[in-house]
Specification:
The protein has four helices and twelve strands. The chain has a single domain, classed as Jelly Rolls, CATH 2.60.120. The relative contact order is 0.24. The radius of gyration is 18 Å and the shape is globular. A hairpin with a 2-residue loop joins strand 7 and strand 8 (145-149). The chain is α+β, with helices and mostly antiparallel strands. It binds fe (ii) ion (FE2). The site of fe (ii) ion (FE2) has 4 residues, from loops. Fe (ii) ion binds next to loops.
């Protein structure tokens, strides 16, 4: 993806998230220069850097963000390697017409919540022993109430509703009737190792640096900032 496209997306998302009444932490809006000044003044942002908090704009390297892409912001996250925090929280901005890859997680169990906007539609399948889609019936919890669905069901979550995605459950999602502010509350999130995509693809986009970053992405900190830890 071009950095200029990522910059435009983040500017739009900042405005839209604020319009939904959801406030991100102050550092979500720091420029590269503000980050560097704050680091030079001695702040410790280990959790942010080590656990890849912050902005995450991806087209899964398919160069078609508007049809196959997602913008996320990880607000908090632990690490089995670096700290005691065993949980994570993020938001996802799901635009209409945008799809994302069918995947499951080996380790992470996650609740995905429609925090507002349009309808959030999530398609689910079980996974077979070789990573294939299973045609078995699925049992999942919607807002704490266990329900049974056929394989491939598209579950509609209205604002306020949520689904619990257990390990090994294939899922992908999209929005209808408007952009959705989706929340995620989960176990520790490691997008480098814990995604099993049905069709192999890249989780993060390669970035063409055609202009300076407006905001740093979760994979940008080491690339753009000078810090010792
Ligand atoms: Fe997921």
């Amino acid at each position: 993806m071009k950095r200029s496209k990522i910059n435009t997306i983040i500017k739009e998302c900042e405005d839209w998230v604020a319009s939904m009444g959801f406030q991100l932490p102050p550092w979500a809006h720091w420029s590269l220069e503000q980050w560097q000044t704050n680091l030079d003044n001695g702040i410790n942002a280990d959790e942010i850097f080590n656990n890849m908090l912050g902005w995450d704009v991806t087209d899964f390297n398919k160069e078609n963000y508007d049809y196959f892409g997602l913008t996320l912001f990880t607000i908090r996250n632990g690490s089995l390697q670096f700290d005691k925090k065993s949980y994570a929280e993020k938001i996802m901005i799901v635009s209409e017409g945008q799809l994302n890859p069918m995947h499951f997680h080996w380790y992470k169990m996650e609740d995905i919540i429609n925090r507002g906007g349009g309808k959030f539609i999530i398609e689910i399948y079980g996974s077979g022993p070789d990573g294939e889609l299973s045609q078995d019936t699925i049992s999942v919890k919607i807002d704490g109430i266990r329900r049974t669905y056929k394989a491939g069901s598209c579950i509609v979550l209205e604002p306020g509703e949520s689904i619990c995605i257990e390990q090994g459950l294939y899922h992908r999602f999209f929005a209808e009737g408007g952009t959705v502010l989706a929340g995620e509350v989960s176990m520790v999130n490691d997008d480098k190792t814990d995604n099993c995509f049905l069709e192999p693809l890249a989780r993060y986009a390669d970035i063409e640096e055609d202009e300076p970053p407006y905001r740093l992405l979760c994979g940008d900190y080491r690339k753009f900032l000078r810090y010792t830890n």
